[in-house]
Amino acid sequence: MRRFSAKYLEDTRRGMWDDRRALAPLSLRDREHVVDVGCGSGELTRVLAAETPGAVTAVDADADLITHVDAADDRVLGDATRLPLVSNAADLVACQALLINLPDPVDAVREFARVSSDLVAAIEPDNSGVDVESTVPAEAALTRRARDAYIAGVETDVTLGSHTDEVFADAGLVDVETRRHEHVRETSAPYSESDIETAQRKATGARLREQRRTLARGGLSEDDIDALRGEWREMGREVVEQMQTGEYERRTTIPFSVTVGHVE
Ligand SMILES: C[S@@+](CC[C@H](N)C(=O)[O-])C[C@H]1O[C@@H](n2cnc3c(N)ncnc32)[C@H](O)[C@@H]1O
């Protein structure tokens, strides 16, 4: 199972649900019991709890992450494909950025349909469509090169947000609706502590070192990876330098979809 830190989840979700109109298909105001599967540190759980008058249960397989969830009525340690909940326990089972991390997302959605008496929802990114604009000239192209190799080598479908409706249909859900949205993340002066840490980490090339095996599976030779990492570190140093003078700006657009389907 891919592991995430609470800090990473907090940083990458910042601002995502400032505007909640994309959640309208979940009819949160009408729910009696909502389950958030793969809740992580509870970034979506907090939004669900604020929007529904019903009870909220948060489920995750990571015993450490789930201790960070503060907005749920109940926190349950469990696997998405074998939820420790009775059939029809909820009227909405939802997840955010979970299915892209699972080897068999259809199995999980089928399990969501067992636990929900009404609706299943998934909010999933399409990592093939991420767009980066940066004041450091090399950053956009390097990010694209690294991401393409990662997507080709990773063992789960991290582009699932582009076809979540097919996964829902394969799991037997009906009246499936999906809609594409964008999460835009901007970095500019004054920089937060987290912006500075991210830039410093970029300059070490640590992420590419951690992803080495995935990048190799994605078709890069050892020499390709070393060359990419060298260029990446140089780019990271330029980001840090631009931050020192306050001129660094970056805009990242992450496409994601909100998909809902009914239980028959
Ligand atoms: C990218 S994080 C998303 C967390 C949260 N939904 C959010 O968007 O901030 C994926 C989460 O799924 C959890 N996870 C991965 N595989 C799981 C499984 N088989 N069953 C339950 N949770 C799982 C991870 O522990 C992690 O918390």
TrEMBL record:
CDD domains noted in UniProt: AdoMet_MTases
Q: Among its keywords, does the record have Nuclease? A: no
**A UniProt-annotated Pfam family:** Methyltransf_11
A biological process (GO) of this protein is:
methylation
- GO MF: S-adenosylmethionine-dependent methyltransferase activity
Location of the Methyltransferase type domain: 35-115
The alphabetical list of record keywords is: Methyltransferase, Transferase
Name of the molecule in the record: S-adenosylmethionine-dependent methyltransferase
